[in-house]
Design brief:
about 160 residues; alpha+beta; Nuclear Transport Factor 2, Chain: A; five-stranded antiparallel beta sheet; 2 helices
Length: about 160
């Protein structure tokens, strides 16, 4: 999955997802880009975790949801284990589940970047046993490939 990219522009309304204009939008979305305030307002902006139900958190999860649908053709919900945002970068660790909660799938870790009006999956990390994800310094190796990536968004074990 490494190196795959997907982008999704999402509005703020609605819970279900619909395919429109080559991308997914929440049902009932106004189709407007997300507020620019989420994109690197200041280079030194604080690390934060968007609260459950917030438009920012929903947009980040929707970008990953879109990518997972593109790769696997599955509708998913996520149990968020880690989500940190700083500037226009986010690191996300989730446990995917079927919408009815009956099926659970292998964990997913993703690096996202906020671009013009949307969040985009920049990197899907392999969660296989021998993956670099589990080695110390994983985040530093990503920083070498993604200049400006703040290490503070990663759990300490990945830095």
């Amino acid at each position: 999955m490494r190196g795959k990219k997907a982008a999704v522009v999402v509005g703020i309304l609605g819970a279900g997802m619909v395919l429109r204009g080559g991308g997914w939008l929440p049902a009932g979305a106004i189709g407007a880009p997300l507020p620019a305030v989420w994109a690197a307002e200041q280079p030194g902006s604080a690390v934060h975790t968007p609260p459950p139900g917030s438009p920012e958190r929903q947009a980040i999860l929707d970008a990953l949801r879109f990518m997972m649908h593109e790769l696997h053709g599955m509708e998913l919900i996520f149990v968020v284990r880690h989500l940190k945002v700083k500037g226009n970068w986010a690191w996300l660790e989730v446990e995917p589940r079927s919408p009815d909660g009956r099926s659970r799938f292998e964990g997913v870790c993703a690096l996202l970047k906020y671009g013009p009006g949307h969040w985009e999956v920049a990197e899907l990390a392999s969660t296989e046993e021998d993956s670099p994800l589990w080695r110390p310094g994983y985040a530093r190796s990503l920083k070498a490939r993604f200049p400006g990536l703040p290490l503070e968004i990663f759990p300490a074990s990945r830095r």
